[in-house]
Design goal:
single chain; 182 residues; mainly alpha; Four Helix Bundle (Hemerythrin (Met), subunit A)
Length: 182
């Protein structure tokens, strides 16, 4: 039976993960990727780094490439995981589809890419330094809190996922054999 229909709260419970994720995105990543870079730059263009205008194009490309990854990340938490990215309302299921097939932490990578993209596009060193600090905080959070928590929550399923999918550097998933060779 579909777990959504079996829920005692009916259709309202289907929307809780989506609403929780939206609130989380507007407050946490919204602040990290929107408010703080605005405070650091006023979102005004400074001269390009090293006088190389092509770095602005690289920054724009990072932003354009990171946005769909970030949207996939938040959508999968609500739909596939039936929870939110917030530790207070975690997913009920391990999220391993979409961009999570290539790397275990696509949301963090997307956020750092958005920050680096803004720094390069705007020519703002402060945003790049901030991006480095955010990346370090993400790494420590993942290693010290998130991975041990997921290991306790999902056990062998998470261990198998970790063996197949790298933490930070994306790779194409291995082909799984569907039949045994003769």
């Amino acid at each position: 039976m579909d777990e959504r229909r079996a829920s005692p709260h009916g259709r309202a419970s289907e929307w809780r993960p989506a609403i929780g994720t939206l609130v989380f995105v507007l407050t946490v990543p919204g602040t990290v990727v929107g408010v703080v870079p605005f405070l650091l730059s006023g979102w005004s263009f400074a001269p390009p780094f090293l006088g190389w205008p092509w770095l602005r194009g690289l920054g724009a490309a990072l932003i354009v490439c990171a946005l769909p990854v970030f949207l996939d990340f938040v959508t999968r938490f609500a739909r596939e995981g039936r929870g939110t990215p917030m530790p207070l309302a975690p997913t009920r299921h391990l999220v391993a589809g979409g961009s999570f097939r290539y790397v275990r932490n696509p949301g963090y990578i997307a956020v750092v890419s958005l920050l680096v993209g803004q720094g390069l596009l705007l020519g703002t060193p402060g945003i790049l330094l901030y991006a480095a600090g955010v990346a370090l905080v993400f790494h420590l959070f993942v290693r010290l809190y998130e991975e041990p928590t997921l290991r306790r929550q999902f056990g062998a399923q998470y261990d198998a996922y970790c063996r197949e999918v790298p933490r930070w550097l994306p790779r194409v998933p291995r082909q799984r054999m569907t039949a045994t060779p003769e």
